[in-house]
Design goal:
Distance between the termini: 41 Å
Oligomer: single chain
Largest sheet: none
Helix content: over 70%
Length: 249
């Protein structure tokens, strides 16, 4: 089994993927593909595919010249205007990153060339992939839960690290991690969410999150021991913090 990426590799990935992610004039699909290619060139492993897929439409909306009532509407326009070429670029990006547990699908399989728009491919995948569900729902989980929860925790604790931790376990308790589901099945994904849910409720209501550090590290150790990575939950967490920074609500 390949070792997990190091913290430094995640930092390198963020550094090298940022320029193509934020470059003006790119289509959505090209933005995603170039960011993934930059990451692969630097670290040679999949550290940030989900993050790139979630952040790219937000950046595209932020760079848009459209005049609408708010970011959510801009985001909806970006997704609605996605093309088959965007889908082709994203498929190439996914094949380049080689994420775990993809398998084969009857309709618009990742090893084939897509014949529908990027948004339509995401709608097909939304029942089993949380990143795809954000595209099909106009980022509902992020905008309705992620951003408000992060803001709330920041106001209460004034600590980005603990607020991010609270947001992460909040997502994990509410949404089965789709990476775990793809690799180990829905029952394992549900079990992880059920395991974290009672702790998440206590953690959220606490005025001193540091009290739970030992317990959280113990759970992290158990997950690492069993090679279970709630990676999609991490992607949703990062995207929510990014959306907060953009002022998307």
């Amino acid at each position: 089994m390949n070792p997990s990426p190091s913290v430094q590799e995640f930092l390198y990935s963020a550094e090298v993927s940022a320029p193509p992610l934020t470059a003006p004039g790119l289509t959505l699909g090209a933005r995603i593909l170039q960011a993934v290619q930059a990451t692969q060139t630097m670290v040679g492993t999949n550290t940030n595919l989900g993050i790139i897929l979630l952040i790219a439409p937000m950046v595209q909306a932020s760079l848009s010249k459209e005049t609408v009532s708010g970011y959510a509407d801009l985001l909806a326009e970006v997704l609605l205007r996605s093309t088959v070429e965007d889908a082709r670029n994203v498929y190439e990006a996914i094949r380049t990153a080689k994420p775990g547990g993809l398998g084969h699908k009857k309709d618009q399989d990742i090893l084939e060339e897509p014949t529908v728009t990027l948004l339509d491919t995401m709608k097909i995948s939304s029942s089993w992939d949380s990143v795809a569900r954000q595209y099909s729902s106009n980022f509902q989980d992020i905008l309705d839960f992620g951003v408000p929860r992060f803001k709330d925790l920041m106001e209460r604790w004034n600590d980005e690290c603990w607020a991010a931790t609270g947001l992460y376990i909040g997502f994990l308790a509410r949404f089965h991690d789709s990476l775990i589901e793809r690799k180990y099945g829905i029952l394992k994904a549900r079990a992880i969410s059920d395991m974290i849910s009672p702790l998440e409720k206590e953690f959220y209501s606490s005025d001193s999150p540091v009290r739970y550090k030992a317990q959280l590290l113990e759970i992290d150790g158990l997950l690492r021991r069993d090679h279970i990575n709630p990676g999609t939950t991490a992607d949703l967490t990062v995207a929510s913090i990014f959306a907060t920074g953009l002022g998307m609500l």
